[in-house]
Every structure is written in structure tokens, then in C-alpha cells.
Amino acid sequence: MAKNTRTQPWNTTDIPDQTGRTAVVTGANSGLGLATATALAAAGAHVVLAVRDTERGEAAAATVNGSVEVRRLDLADLASVREFADAWHGDLDLLINNAGIMNVPEGRTKDGFETQFGTNHLGHFALTNLLLPHITDRVVTLTSLAHKSPGSPRIRFDNLDLTGEYSPIPAYSQSKLANLLFTLELQRRLTEAGSPVRALAAHPGWAATNLQGHDTSPLRRALMRLGNRLIAQDSRAGALPTLYAAVQDLPGASLVGPGGMFETRGAPTLVGRSPAAADPATARRLWTASEELTGVTFPESTAAVQS
After folding, report:
1. Is residue 10 part of a domain?
2. Model confidence pLDDT, tens digit, residues 133-151
3. Rounded to a whole number, what is the distance in angstroms from the first to the last CA of the chain?
4. Residue 6 domain-assigned?
5. Considering only CA atoms, which of 121, 68, 66 is closest in space to residue 97?
6. What distance in Å separates the CA atoms of residue 128 and residue 109, rounded to the nearest whole number?
7. Whole-structure pTM value
8. Active-site amino acid positions
């Protein structure tokens, strides 16, 4: 038997040939999304940059070598999500739910949901289910270490919008916990339907992107800038867990993150999640609530989710 002589950690050069495959990456005009799109296009995939600001998206696409296009998608507006999905024709090999906002001031999406929960979770929930009849391989949804931050994040079913008790950090943590519970229940439903499509999640550790720049606290923004210089990975390294989840042969519902220094940085590997993020009963309850809020449901027919 040949020995495994590999000494270098997994990186973008290990991505298999993606020629003939199509990927959608949400929030791909900067940061992790752009790094993900760039790597997939370099490997031969046709990549759709799904972005709210198409002018910025076109500028980002101009920096990518390979086959790319830009389409408008505003995850904070369910009408925009439906418009994007309705315009899709043909197979979609890979959906990467990358877009997100973090620690922003209290606000509401166009449909009246708390902004972080509405954008990070409900927008991607609706998008995934609407595109699912076209998806042939997998869905990768980005979460965060914040899903298990101090204070035991949980889904506030009694007050999902945190009305009257909004705080940016707990709101962000709730949305990132929701991303993992969504992945867990999506995989259960896909398996039950006999679909070959897999649902996985990834977190980037601590990556230096512009995500932290919208924090409501000037002190936290300053601390994050310092951490970005001293601790964080750059966006290309931060995108590796997403790419690993997108192209490696992994079990459904897996979570990929950095393997070093408390999962803040390092080569991508399978990592654990909080007990709250692994609770199937909570995952089912969140799915039901998400269907009621968005009006979007899982395509029940097995044929509808198979290529």
C-alpha cells in the first residue's frame, strides 16, 4: 500500500476540477464570498455572484479569472429572493449561502423581520428551498463560532425579532445558530426524500473581512481591527473551510472549520458544534417557524430535489 506522503495542509490547489459545474455564491462581491468565487472559478466552475449591489458585483467579477456572472439578490427582501429563484433555469451543482451581516444596529428587513435573523437565516432558508429543485450536489451554509459564544445562544421562539430586548451580539449569535439548525434539518429532509443532495455548514474562524466594520460598538470595532491584524486569517484562508465543504466527500450535516488555535485559524477540518446546534427537535421547530414566516416550504417530492 502506498504511503500518504502529503505534508502540506489542504488549500485551493487541492480543489478538484470543477469544469462543467455551476455554483451560486451569495454575498460574493467582497471578503469570503469573493475569495470563494475566485477559487471555484479558477478550478473551472461557472460562478454566479449573487449580490445586492450589482455595480459592486461587476467590479468584483472583473477581478476573477474564469467564467463568472453577476445577478442581483437581496436576502433582506423575499420578493428579491423569489425573483432570483424564478429566473433560474437548468441545473445548479452548488449553492453557497455565504452572505451575512454582523452586530448591526436594530432594524427590520423589507418583510419586517429582525435584520440579522432575516438576512442571515430566513433569506437563505427561502433561497435554498426555492432553488432546491435545481440543485444536484450540495448546499453549504456559512455559520460562525458565535453560535457557541458565551451566554448559551438559543433560538428565541417566543421573540424571534427580539422586540424590546434587542442586542447586536445575541441577535447575531441566534442567526448563526439558526444556520446550523437549518443545515441539520435540511439534511434530514433530503435523506428522507431519497435525495443525493447534501447539506453542509462551514465557519471561517476569525477572518479579516469588512463584516466586522458594521459593529454598533466603536470599542468592539477597534478591538476587531486589532484582532484582524494580530490573529485573523486573510479572506483567502478564511474561505478554505467553505471550499473544503463544497468539494470534499463529506457526510451530510457536517461542519467544517479551521483546525488550529481554538478554531480561529488553520487548515480546514471537520469540527464540532454546540449541543444547541445539534438538537433535532429545535431544528424541526425552527424549520416550521421559518416556513410560516417566509411562506416557502421544502419541495416534498423526491423527484423535485433530484437531478
Report:
1. no
2. 999 999 999 999 988 776 6
3. 37
4. no
5. 121
6. 18
7. 0.90
8. 172
